[in-house]
Design a protein that fits this description.
Layout (H helix, E strand, L loop, with lengths): L26 E6 L4 E6 L12 E5 L1 E3 L3 E6 L5 E11 L2 E7 L9 E4 L4 E8 L5 E7 L3 H8 L25 E4 L11 H9 L3 E7 L22 E5 L1 H12 L4 E4 L1 H10 L9 E5 L14 E5 L6 H10 L1 H13 L10 E4 L1
Parallel strand pairs: 1-17, 3-12, 3-14, 4-11, 14-16
Antiparallel strand pairs: 1-2, 5-6, 5-8, 6-7, 7-10, 8-9, 9-10, 12-13, 13-15, 16-17
Helix pairs in contact: 5-6
Amino acid sequence: MNIAEFDYELPKELIAQHPSDKRDEARLLVLNRKYHSIEHKIFKDIIDYLEPGDCLVINNTKVLPARLLGEKTDTGINVEFLLLKRIENDMWEVMVKPGRRLKEGAEVIFGDGLLKGKILEVMPNGNRKVEFSYNGIFNEILDKIGLMPLPPYITESLKEKDRYQTVYAKYDGSAAAPTAGLHFTEELLEKIEEKGIQIAKVTLHVGIGTFRPVKVENIEEHEMHSEHFYIKQEDVDKINSAKRSGHKVIACGTTSCRVIETVADENGFVKETERDTSIFIYPGYKFKCLDALITNFHLPKSTLVMLVSALAGRDFIMEAYKIAVEEKYMFFSFGDAMLII
């Protein structure tokens, strides 16, 4: 399959620059695979498509305010760090700007000295291994001086940090939000549980690789990025209970989808697991556990457009995206949502 098959035209003004006023009042495009139909709804209408006994799977990772603006101690030049992954203790893998000025041994100061970073190594991929020093608790300092690592296509500043965080975010570790979950409110989740729908939680820490473009023409040659995840026994039991009783497993977001498809056996049952996944889902993939998917609209030629095409069919997805553009749905992280049933 050629990368060009997953391209589409998107006017720049349809790239959402800020979240909707109310989380659950974003628009919702509903794709029904059985009837090849498309409906236009509001996100909170999603409850009408969930039945008692179904299981909704959500990703409770929390986005770190991982963008740090500081200055090099010896020259005072402005530098930017993006925390990617904790290696151990206070040692992190970091993306830096400007790279040419930040060689091994360089020291950087952030937040008037609240945080200091020393570059230990230039890694083969161009990122830096950095050791941080500080007084107090690292995450509290990050909350004070760090900025949310918004995707490059969002150019406006974010007024409220928590709007790039799901209401159920719990475990620190992501460099980007699992954005399909941004539409849920605590009230909507309560109504879903009251209806008899189980909510299972997984944790997948979203890496910056999620924004990395596919650079090969033949998509099967693409090397997928790896992300760390875990799923606990109590949540495994909820998913397996829905499968066993013939009810639907609905993943909120491509990250939740990737977790359950990574751990599912041939019969669609999952097991308690913690490891990395680099699963690459594209047309031709046979889903084992997932029955339906809540997702946002994804970048042209991205692996996530390929994933939704694997579920709904490339032609149907491209038709839906064309309609979404015509109907002026908003796209990407702060944009509107899609439900594939």
